[in-house]
Amino acid sequence: MIQIPAVSVKPLFSVLVVTLSVLLAISVLAPRSIFSQTSFSSLSREHFDIWSVSRMVEWRPCKWWLQGHLTALPEKSNGYIRIDCYGGLNQMRRDLCDGVGIARLLNATLVMPKFEVAAYWNESSGFADVFDVDYFIQQMTGFVRVAKELPPEFASKEPFQVDCSKRKGQFDYLESVLPSLVEHHYISITPAMSQRRDRYPEYAKAAFCQGCYSALRLTKSLEKKASELLLAIPKPFVALHLRFEPDMVAYSQCEYTGLSPSSMEAIEAAQGDKKPWTGDLAKIWRRRGKCPLTPRETAFILKALRIPTNTHIYLAAGDGVMEIEGLTSVYTNVVTKSALLSGEDFGNMHGNTKAALDYYVSINSDAYMATYFGNMDKMVAAMRAFKGLYKTLFLSRRAFSELTYKGLRGKRLARALWEAHRDDFVMGKGSALPDCFCEFKL
Hints:
Layout: H1 10-29, H2 41-46, E1 57-61, H3 63-66, E2 80-85, H4 89-105, E3 109-111, E4 114-115, H5 127-130, H6 133-139, E5 145-147, H7 152-155, E6 160-161, H8 170-176, H9 178-184, E7 186-189, H10 202-213, H11 220-232, E8 237-241, H12 246-252, H13 261-271, H14 279-287, H15 295-304, E9 312-315, H16 325-328, E10 334-335, H17 337-340, H18 343-347, H19 351-363, E11 367-370, H20 375-386, E12 392-394, H21 397-405, H22 410-426, E13 437-441
Parallel strand pairs: 2-3, 2-4, 2-7, 3-5, 6-7, 8-9, 8-11, 9-10, 11-12
Antiparallel strand pairs: 1-13
């Protein structure tokens, strides 16, 4: 019988324990970037992409607006109102929507809005250059009076300007603006931000909703160009509204590290007297979700949401997005309107018409994602809900900041981002404007 010599296991066990301890210490103590290489394959096996998650809530147009019985317009109008709109296209569109509701509230006749020329936006186009005037008038029939031209007694006059910067609710307008309308018969207003439309009577809210979502259609020539652009984009595709321009970053007052020297110079040039927060204030500001996502952070979140890296992405953004390589190095099928349109066509366009193309593509895309929740994003999300398109999601700056502040990195960060965005998508968070849309539980 063969004898096997006895071997002590204590030395072997001691060596094994020491080796494992060293490896564990290396893995824990080694510095890791937020963007440490992470294998998403195991995560992908557990779930499909974010769009495959079953939703519990949808926002749909309220029946009282689409199917309600309109309150008849009074026989006589109290006068004419012109809405003076400022800013970019979607900010002006928001002003116009509010103006329609205010005109109905005051029983006024709406005249063609004035789009203020803004050198900052490289802009010179007016309302009629972007939107179909006749279609707008037709769609507003029964909701509010609209005049294509002023009567002779007012045609050569400028309207009396009424300051509405502090007017937000129904009684503000009835008590402070209506007397000026009755006295001067022709006034101009710019609606204040953050209107309290919930206090409007239903007929005024219905006019607001109709004006915002049913009455604004691009001019035939612009819609033709937008359709051509949409056809040129490989399908299916995600429209991504990515905001990381120098002025946007400067306005946010956020600190960034790791950006290229050219990006830092552009940000400093745009800052002026508005310097970024520093120290603990900078940390608090970032944790509140006030800091724009970089293209690299955006790519990381998209991967965490199981968006395949070969996905076709239409970049719905203006010129000047910085650090774009952080996105395109991961997602290689990114296209822009400047690449798809001919040089002459693109060169002849101004800020509003370019923004209108992005808006059109975004409301008709297979999916829409945004790194910000600005005027365009609110309008696009609501219009997609109006059209029954629910693959819409806003990437959470706050969730990203909170999770990275807690020290999450790599795979753990990806999983936590998935869970945060999954819950938002399931509940339809931020997918529509509640003024005109009602929550519908699935």
